[in-house]
Amino acid sequence: GAVVSQHPSWVICKSGTSVKIECRSLDFQATTMFWYRQFPKQSLMLMATSNEGSKATYEQGVEKDKFLINHASLTLSTLTVTSAHPEDSSFYICSARNARTNEKLFFGSGTQLSVL
Amino acid sequence: DQQVKQNSPSLSVQEGRISILNCDYTNSMFDYFLWYKKYPAEGPTFLISISSIKDKNEDGRFTVFLNKSAKHLSLHIVPSQPGDSAVYFCAASVRSNSGAGSYQLTFGKGTKLSVIP
Fold first, then answer.
1. Please, which pLDDT band fits residue A1 given cuts at 50, 70 and 90?
2. DSSP assignment, residue A59?
3. pLDDT of A75-113, one tens digit each?
4. Closest CA to A79 of A68, A65, A63
5. pLDDT at B101
6. How near does any CA of chain A get to the CA of B91, in Å?
7. Are B54 and B41 in contact (CB under 8 A)?
8. N-to-C CA span, chain A
């Protein structure tokens, strides 16, 4: 089946630094990728929708200057958490849409970010 | 305000019996519902879905029932197997939205299913 690879799986960083998370579709072209965030005991919350070659669409309350999304190719989207703070510590997960299957989204394995 | 609710954080079922996971939603615009299964340290994987024009969809041991008037759906697993032990997420979308918006999912908090051998 379709595979979405997400790296790194976990990262610890100091407050004020930036962290980049990569999401790759390994065997299909992903015209659209979605980035979610999950705080402990909460549901996965959509942060932004990323379309290849265009600007990402952010959900209400998500700072686009803080969470930079780049979807430069049909197989790669990146999320950069800039000037990370402890309150950004969360589980970040991407999903990719295979335009051919339409029905399903395929998820990466997630990234646990801890900001000290 | 949570639009998709899974009120049971956990459920334990004996192997071979039926597992019933419940999900309620509040947004009447939702017209497509999905169940995802998640193992630790892995991303959610798609299990089964149902369109609002149906009230039942079956795939092997998995059946999803949709009651639109009650804004309620349930996932039935029968017979339950130890390998089914995982966190199950209910998700909903508005497929009538244009473009990528139709694939934006609203998730519940998940229910952890434990199938006891």
1. low
2. P
3. 999 999 999 999 999 999 999 987 776 557 889 999 999
4. A68
5. 67
6. 10
7. no
8. 37
Contacts of B45 in chain A (CB under 8 A): 107
Structure tokens at B94: 């508005």
Handedness of CA B22, B28, B34, B36 (dihedral sign): negative
User: Taking a C-beta distance cutoff of 8 angstroms, is the pair B110, A45 a contact?
Assistant: no
CA atoms within 13 A on the CB side of A87: 1
User: Per residue in B43-85, pLDDT tens?
Assistant: 888 899 999 999 999 999 999 999 999 999 999 999 999 999 9
Distance CA B100, CA B34 (A): 16
Of B107, B20, B14, B108, the closest CA to residue B61 belongs to: B20
Token digits for B114?
A: 């434990």
* Interchain CB distance below 8 Å, A9 and B41: yes
Q: Which helix (H) or strand (E) holds B87?
A: strand B86-93
Write out chain A residues lying below 8 Å of B104, CB-based: 34, 46, 49
Cα→Cα distances B96→A27, B6, B90, B100, B103, Å: 28, 24, 19, 11, 10
Distance CA A24, CA B62 (A): 30
